[in-house]
Write a structure and sequence with these properties.
This protein is an alpha+beta fold. It folds into 3 domains: 18-167, Distorted Sandwich (Calcium-transporting ATPase, cytoplasmic transduction domain A), CATH 2.70.150.10; 178-244, no CATH class; 259-273 and 286-302, no CATH class. It is built from 8 helices and 14 strands. The strands form 4 sheets. Strands 2-1-3-12-4-10 form a 6-stranded antiparallel β-sheet, with no helix packed on it. Strands 6-5-11 form a 3-stranded antiparallel β-sheet, with no helix packed on it. A 3-stranded antiparallel β-sheet has the order 7-8-9, with no helix packed on it. This is P-type ATPase A domain-containing protein.
């Protein structure tokens, strides 16, 4: 329905968002703009303050080479608005944009799961003989946002359906309003009445046929004599089908669609989002007007 189409459009919008990754070309050391949908496991992504995380990643380096600390906001994942500190991997926290491209190694980690607060893995760089352990403090999730950190570099571990965000998502529930429940009950009653009317009509038809068989054969013909019992049921069902308001459900959905348009374009339901955040270059940010969204048009009737 309409909600499914809107979810599809939202998925397309998310997949088309852009992020910076290190150009995989061997002779290039530049950043490359890539769609979230094109980000692959093993890509090294650069995030700046305020950027959303496009995939589950392990932090390799930040703007703080001493501590390697970055702060992320996970309100979209767990509802907590407080910032969580994360750390770059010990063996790579001092690396820079120019040196990360030349690093070669292997990350071994657990299979995809839905656990938001745990992660276990190891990093083995070719230049070091030992493995470095990786845990949840080095791991940032898709759906979180980088805060109070100038930049960080992270290597992609899980993408798409393997991310923690997707693993914790649930199929949307089919929500029904009071009007829809009432309409379904009325349709059930109408269907029951229709069945009773067809049964009574068929019974009366049999009574008439038993008394006047010649009249029935005159109108029906010998060819339908064998199937006349089923034909009577089908005939009366077709005659009485106008009793069922088939267009009622379509009309209700159309009205809800129009209601959703009015709700989303009502200026009385808009608000200006908080204090404008400064841009990356320090320039004043622009305020954002947030409009109401009718995410489930089925519930418009209950407002």
């Amino acid at each position: 329905g309409y909600e499914d189409w809107r979810r599809y459009k939202n998925d397309v919008k998310v997949n088309n968002r852009k992020c910076d990754i290190l150009d995989p070309e061997p002779n290039s050391n530049k950043l490359k703009r890539a769609r979230w949908a094109d980000v692959k496991v093993g890509d090294i992504v650069r995030l700046e303050d305020g950027d959303d995380v496009p995939a589950d990643m392990v932090i390799l380096a930040t703007n703080d080479p001493t501590e390697g600390i970055a702060y992320v906001e996970t309100a979209m994942l767990d509802g907590e608005t407080s910032l969580k500190p994360k750390n770059a991997v010990e063996d790579t926290k001092t690396e820079t944009h120019g040196t990360l491209k030349s690093k070669r190694g292997k990350i071994s980690c657990e299979p995809p799961s839905n656990r938001l607060d745990t992660f276990t893995g190891t990093l083995k760089l070719d230049e070091y003989p030992r493995n470095t352990s990786i845990d949840a403090k080095n791991f940032i999730l898709k759906g979180s946002r980088l805060r109070n950190t100038e930049y960080l570099y992270g290597v992609v571990i899980y993408t798409g359906v393997d991310t923690r965000l997707h693993r914790n998502s649930r199929p949307p529930r089919n929500k029904r309003s009071k009007i829809e429940r009432d309409v379904n009950w009325y349709l059930f009653i109408i269907a029951a009445v229709l069945t009773i009317m067809v049964a009574i009509s068929v019974w009366l038809s049999f009574r008439f046929t038993d008394k006047e068989p010649e009249v029935f054969l005159y109108f029906a013909g010998e060819s339908v004599k064998r199937y006349h019992d089923w034909l009577r049921i089908i005939t009366f069902a077709i005659l009485y089908n106008n009793l069922v308001p088939i267009s009622l459900c379509v009309t209700i959905d159309f009205v809800r669609f129009i209601q959703a348009i009015f709700i989303e374009n009502d200026p009385d339901l808009e608000y200006v989002k908080g204090a404008a955040e400064p841009g990356r270059d320090g320039s004043p940010g622009e305020s954002t007007v947030v409009k109401a969204q009718a995410r489930t048009a089925n519930l418009n009737d209950d407002l």
